[in-house]
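Still learning folds. Look over my entry:

…
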Amino acid sequence: FDKRSLVLPRCGPPPEQVDVVVVGAGLLGMITAKRCLDAGFTVAVLEQRPLVGGIWSMYANGTSQVNSSEGGYCLKEFIGEEGGKNGDNRDHSTAAEVLRDFAKLGESLKRHIFTQVKVVKVLGSAGDYHVLFQDGVGPSAAAAVARCRGVVLCINDRVGLPRPLSVPGQEQFKGVVADGTADSLADVDWRGKRVVIVGMGAFAVENVRTALENGAREVVVVGRRHGTICPKMIDYLNFVKPWDEKYKHDTQTNVKQFLRWKELYEASGCTVPECWPKQVKHEGHTISVSDVWFIGHFMKKLSTRSGELASLGPDGVTLSSGEFVHCDVVVGCIGFERSAHLCEALTGRSEVKTSNYLDRDMMYLADAEIDEGAFNSFFGSSVLEYGKFFSNVYVEGLKRGDELGERLWGDGTASVGITARKWNQYIAAGLQLIESDAAIAAHARMQVERRTEHFWRTMPPQSFLEVNRKEWEELHQRLNGGIPVPKEQQLPYFFDEAPAWCGEQPGNMLVQEASPCSSVVDSVKSWIRTTHVGSLPRPRESEFALSQVLKQQAEVGVDVVNDGEWGRENYIADVINRIEGLRGGGGPADSTSAGCCAKHSMPSAVDMHDVPQYAQRFTGGNGLVTLNPKREAVSDLACIAHPRYLPAAIPSLNPFVAALADVGKPVADAFYSVPSPGTLALFCKDLHFGKHDAYVRALGDALRGEYSRIAATGLQLQVDCPDLAMGRHTRWADLDDAAFLDIAQANVAALNKALRDVPAKQVRVHVCWGNYAGPHHRDMPADLVWPILGEVKAKYILVEGANARHRNDIAAFERAVKQGHFRPDQVIVPGMVDTTAARVEDPGLIAASLLEYVRIAGHPSRVMAGTDCGFASTARSTAITADIAWLKMASLAEGARLATSRFIQSCAPVPCRSPHFKPTPFRAAVIASSEDAGYARQVASELKGLRAHFVEVFVGDCFEALRWAVDVPLALVGIGTQGARMAELTMQRLGRDRAVARRPSTLVTVGADGIGGLSVPRGTAADVAEAVRDAAMTSTSFDKRSLV
């Protein structure tokens, strides 16, 4: 998962007036917005961060799972996927699955969500409110006000800032110390590690699971009190067991499951919570759900200590009891500060009704302190279920305020201090509303029935038992380093009779065939990307290889690459070889080109005329321009007849496409540079037409074929247009601005005509003022360029932005956006490194500059990091040497990475270490005939080291063995023709089996053609294993950019 998929495009500024303002685009904020919109109310969701997803997008680890059974924390009804229409999430959904659903919900609400908007104050009362906010997006970022009749504050209360772990001696510790959130431990290799985890809440238990499942030698958990941990079956039963009319479970089955739970504690060796049996959990604690907790204790891999950390030494920790514990990793999971003060700061109100209302149509919909009995309601262990219910209550209040007002926000409804809110208070208020209002009661009943149907469809009780029992048994092997544990040596399973407590299957169940899950991440979400303008310093002839330049670009972090123009002397001379009527080459100044024309002076840069002393440093032309007026560059480049395109081979094109295939780079992520019609007119003297408009139109007609042939390969077409800027102070320096703009308009018209067969989304246009180290004080202002540039048919606009003369052109870009010269479908690619200076730009400054462009453009997908120009305009250019050029490109990539991280972590209390969640592990079933069994075992052995959670080799039918293996995605690997057919048949049978909802399955066939799935050749076991891993993990990753 990549968090960039959480970044939504902005559809303009927030409205001045709406029915409802929702503050916060986390889980509760988005479902409330959806409820209000579905009821016909206008809504604006204001979110101060640049991405949606709330605390999940801030604090979740890639290994995080929901602390509730899947049906109790499910968004499918809000994203049009109820009933398995697009597949179901796993039980205790992964962070990637949850955030992928968040991204889909955010995408559906993007017209109503306004990110980077910080709410400052909510003024007003009694259904007439003014929301004051600061908008940080766009060229007119400023303070503003939205008027509304209703406000919902969905700002997290219970999970505020993480409490830092501060222990004396921490600087001496040789190992890793981290806080256990936001992927701070993503790079830790847990194998063989001794781990100490401080705290016993949900994040602590999650990190226990992560460490043990990934090979930690032992884990010691240190806490002031022993938290309550329940096995997965207990949490499942709390949702699935029948409810009476007052939303209570049968007391007799409650007692039975509690006794089994107690027996499990005793048999496993876990310490029973100090609050038992008087209370199920400590005040303020949650109940964490984990089977690993019990099995880890039983296998002596996990133990707990009461107390605190007194100090850290080089090799371990000393506890407050005086005990020393050796360890390699210390994880602090000591909870979060509450954020209840934010509500009072925004609204000026210090009390809230137990119904969550602060005033008429103003609700504080936020998690509160979890007190005793908090989970003894139909909300179960899920804040999402709480949000589903009270968002329906809110809509009823909007519709029927005069009727319901007294019960929702009136004086007769109890009030409590905002900082003293507890779960039981709004549970009790919810039950009173259910008893007193038929519509609210119907919402509650529908919510419970829909959830129950979901559980019975995706994981009916008997199926859950089979799945849970299989996972229970396999956990012993996983915690034992992959070595099987005899069943008689395992912790017994205590819940065989649980399905009998769940009653009868509800009728009229909604069942849909599952279809492959579609990803919300597309190329637009893959930001902030890097590219360059084209030419790169050439190597010595003996080192020339296209694969070399492609690999170098990949190594330094360039996303959209090219051939460095290594196969061409320069991009002008290359194309004129295929245009009849254009001629030119080189030679002595007094010579005459046979059958062509005499040498003539090339355009001279007039700024260099003002610095004659400096100009003496140049021996002649830089490429195609005179830089030293006393040593004019001359050429025979000229138009001597009407230009006509000759469709000969483009020598460097096919080798480039082939080299991309060799290194595995998609052609869509590569570009090929060509001159514009105006650029040819700039450098090729007109000796035929005598009128610029006619000349440039003819050049455009000739170039049309060249452009189309390049675009047909799938490459991005980069059209270089120095004529639109540098042309002003070179070829057309004797004109005034108005006359030059007429020239530029004609050039753009000719260019657009030449591009008519090329999709705009495939076109890049580069504009520059000349790639030479001159004063550039005669450069035409960017404000004059943008109106012309805004007419070009191109998605990507590449401009200078790093050098001292044009660094402030960002202001001109801001004005261009306001004036409509930068279209919503376009991407700005400002130069972030100067291609004429040796100093290597600081990545931090690059990041800061990119974020300014993001602010103006409105979304990071509309900004790429580029270079001012090419590093070697011709094969003989040496202004920047190769070693400097590659250092600059590496700095460019690092700056883009920093900009992405800074953008995502904006207004977040923890750093964004990466926009990506690493893919979750998978299960592999390697299926082969007896003849291929040896090779199958080799592949299985390699898979065990590649994030495969569980690997088995089968010779023959394996359907029953895999039927209940649904905890992680499954890769079916068929070896040879016979094994491949068995694997395909098994996958078909699993797909038809409706006993349980399954995770995604991937079919990989090895050495077998004509069978479905991914086919890979029978190579080394290591190569095959890597191919299986890559295929299996594709659907389990996530990019947080989809939340923006």
